[in-house]
Specification:
alpha+beta
Amino acid sequence: MQVLETKHLLLRPFNPEIQQQVMTTKSDEELMEYFGFNNNEALNTEKDRFEKGFTMFNKSFFLFYILEKQSNKVIGWCGFHTWYFVHSRAEIGYSLSADEYKGKGYMTEALAEVIAYGFNIMNLHRIEAMVGPENVPSLLLMKKFGFTKEGVLREHY
């Protein structure tokens, strides 16, 4: 699968097939570097996620690890963590690994590519986002990309 490239970032795809290959062929040290983890707890969480299975009969995921071009370091992820392929819709999620990467426009840059990928390559008809009402940076990001607030899911997560 092709790595997407923006002005400042590389977006490395990660889906069930890639997950299988990565998790079964790399050492713990290689996994820490691949995912950009700083501690064993994060690695153990990823291993547990792999063991339990992330894909079900009607939904899957398609993520991108965000690498800063200048350092080639993983600085976060974004993509579709709940992809209902039968219904051509997915929920988008995103995270930067440290505060030092926030406020630089990285997520805006990454999401522009990932949203376009979702509609143009994955043939999605709908992209959803669940954003906490107090998460102002994410609310502004969703507004920037034209998302429409449809309601509040009280005590959802």
